[in-house]
Amino acid sequence: MQTPGKVGKKGTFCPSESLREKLEFQEGYAVYHVVKNKNLLMLKTPSVTLSDDSTSKLTKEDIESSATLLMFNDLLKLLNRLNGQDIKRMLDIGCGYGGLAKTIANYLYIPEVYGLDRDPIRLEMAKKRLQTVKLNVEQKFPFRENIFDLITSFGVLEHLTYFDNVIQEAHRVLKDGGYFLISVPNLASYVNRIMLLFGYQLRDVEISREVVVGLAKRYYDKPLRPIVHIHTLTLAALKELLEFYGYEIVAVRGGSPRYEISHVSLLVRVADLLFSWRPSLCRRIFVLARKS
Predict the structure, then answer these.
(1) Which of 72, 153, 230, 233 could be bridged to 93 by S-S, CB 3.0 to 4.6 A?
(2) What would the pLDDT profile of 80-134 be if each residue is shown by its tens digit?
(3) Which residues touch 143 (CB under 8 Å, ≥6 apart)?
């Protein structure tokens, strides 16, 4: 018999009786829903609360600010590798509103969760969910060495000029054998390869804070705004950089978004599914590393 609230033998999520199963619809937003008959955490239009604590519920702001949440099923494959580990303290770098970090903490039963972010508006919500620190993550982290069991960074590196400080500081404050879980856009995704072939600018290599320029206009059904993605990297580069700073690569997963609203063409959605089997071609990279 599978333990309630844990992961079964095949990696499926088994909701416990204490989890709220009543679905509250938020029309127009893609959020997550526990499918009772399959015991799978799947992407649907309804939202789900992973505990009775109201701060655990994913909000509109959580969804709109996190590309990783739209690929949670892909992230879940790596989270399942951590199930059963003795993780007592977690740090989320660039925690935003704190919804994703809170969801992961609930899923893995992590009692102590910290978040770093420099946005005071987002931290107002995050501090209701996590222990937060306002910080530019390109600075030294305000923690002593070897205190965290798990550090996460979702959609942060692409906003930075260089990645060294985040990766070095994460290594410093991680315990020996602790885990570092990262999500970044894939510079070498199939989409970017096609765009470069036809001479278009890449979405994740922006050159202006005011306007999006150089993209293939037919790719999207509506105008875009800058998301301040300075640059990103390939899967090979991320793995090499992590190994250079003393990490061992545990697992890699490719991610492709699940869409509930039709701002992306059917052709792109089909291509996302076709290329989802290969991380080096997927839109987003998930890497689980361990401090060696």
Answers:
(1) 153
(2) 999 989 999 999 999 999 999 999 999 999 999 999 999 999 999 999 999 999 9
(3) 91, 114, 173
Q: Which residues pair with 286 in a beta bridge?
A: 183, 253
The structure's pTM equals 0.78
Query: Which of helix, strand or coil describes residue 131?
Result: strand
> How far is it, in rounded angstroms, from Cα 91 to Cα 144?
13
CATH top class, domain 53-195+201-291: alpha beta
Domain ranges in the chain are: 53-195+201-291
Backbone phi, psi, residue 70, to 5°? -75, -5
Assess contact for 4 and 16: CB atoms under 8 A: yes
Q: How far apart are CA 123 and CA 131, in angstroms?
A: 10
Q: What is the dihedral of CA 48, 125, 108, 173, to 10 degrees?
A: 160
User: Residue 233's closest CA among 292, 162, 132?
Assistant: 162
Q: Could you give the CA distance from residue 61 to residue 216 in angstroms, rounded to a whole number?
A: 28
User: Do residues 102 and 110 lie in contact, with contact meaning Cβ atoms separated by under 8 Å?
Assistant: no
Q: Provide the pLDDT for residue 19.
A: 30
CA–CA dist 274, 116 (Å, integer):
36
Q: Which residue has the tokens 């089909």?
A: 270
Pick from 47, 140, 39, 131: nearest CA to 91: 131
Sequence-separated (6 or more) residues with CB below 8 Å from residue 238: 182, 184, 285, 287
Backbone angles phi, psi at 38, to 5 degrees: -115, -5
